[in-house]
Amino acid sequence: MSGPLEGLKVVDLSALAGAYGTRLMASMGADVLKVEPPQGNPMRQLAPFADGAPENEASLWWAYLAMGTRSAVVDPRTDEGAEQLRTLLLEADVVVDDQGPDELDELGLGYAAIARENPGVIWISITPFGRSGPKRDWKLTNLGAWAASGVLYTVGFEDQPPVAPGGPAQLALHGTALNGAISALLALRVRRQTGRGQLVDLAISEAALMVSPETGTTVFLDDRVHRVRSGNRRTLSRPFGLYPCSDGYISILILMPRHWESLANWMHEAMGNEAATDPVFGDMVVRGETMELIDGWTEELCGSMTCLEFFQEAQRRGIPVTPVSTIEALLTDPHLEAVGFWEQTELPAGGEVAIPGPAFRSNMDWWSTARAPRLGEHSTPLGWHTA
Length: 387
Fold this sequence. Notes:
Layout: E1 9-12, H1 16-27, E2 31-36, H2 60-65, E3 70-73, H3 79-91, E4 94-97, H4 103-106, H5 111-117, E5 122-127, H6 142-149, H7 151-154, H8 171-194, E6 198-203, H9 204-210, H10 218-221, E7 240-244, E8 249-253, H11 257-271, H12 284-289, H13 291-303, H14 307-316, E9 321-323, H15 327-331, H16 334-338, E10 342-346, E11 352-356
Parallel strand pairs: 1-2, 1-4, 2-3, 4-5, 5-6
Antiparallel strand pairs: 7-8, 8-9, 10-11
């Protein structure tokens, strides 16, 4: 069965800030044409690389985030390239663009110029701070997005510098790209009702701000006081955070009275800790006030077993805990294997690698994936699928 976006023409002029969104659209049947400069999309230069693969075909970032798309090399700064890109844009349903707010306008290929002839075009403009305002021309990285949003201030330990959320995972950019895909689908719905497209203005810094529990909600806006960075534990109550087992860390969150009762009984049975069963500790406020004591009891229990042992026994007792998974643990997880989460994809230069499967599952089999394209693989003939 064809995907729900079958027949949708998407011109992707973005790099990492739009890639996850267009990859999702391609997986759902859209014809996503990545327009690349002669040197290739910047994602092609992102490590890690597949061993032995030629330059521009080795990036594992590209292999995953460009899956199912097509590649055409077009240089809009030449007369021929500008005309080629203009032709593609005039036929496009959706354009995803992470250029500066004026770069394509200067070439006569921006939204205003294209929409005059293609009024149905939906243009997803992704910029660091948006297309207007005093910061519209400022530059930004993924780390800079977390810094600008205020999220960075909240992550890490109290006596240490802030820590980037997700490390090298570029989560702010992926979140922005997902917002781009969602906004494109909503704009398509409006186009069916009105016949007209629209310009969608997405700011990476604002996408990061929107997911912040400390700087994007009334928790911060009410009193304008930053919460102290609390490392891998939270100050609301105890136990709440990450605790060391003999071979790794386990995530524990105990708020409900029945969960504490189960954990306290476990401490009593396993360690002879009768004090843990005192009814006074059933109050989460009290546990928050005695956090060092509660942490010590919890660490003693966790340290006596492996993550898997602790997880299985906690689940048996109805306590919501989860091991902090390593990559190896994820790849060999029996649950993920049973539901078919991991798939194999062909690398552009040959060979295969394991990747996450569909972002969601439906009882209709319309999700499809194909390998990422080689540089310029679909430059000739340049255009859209006709099948």
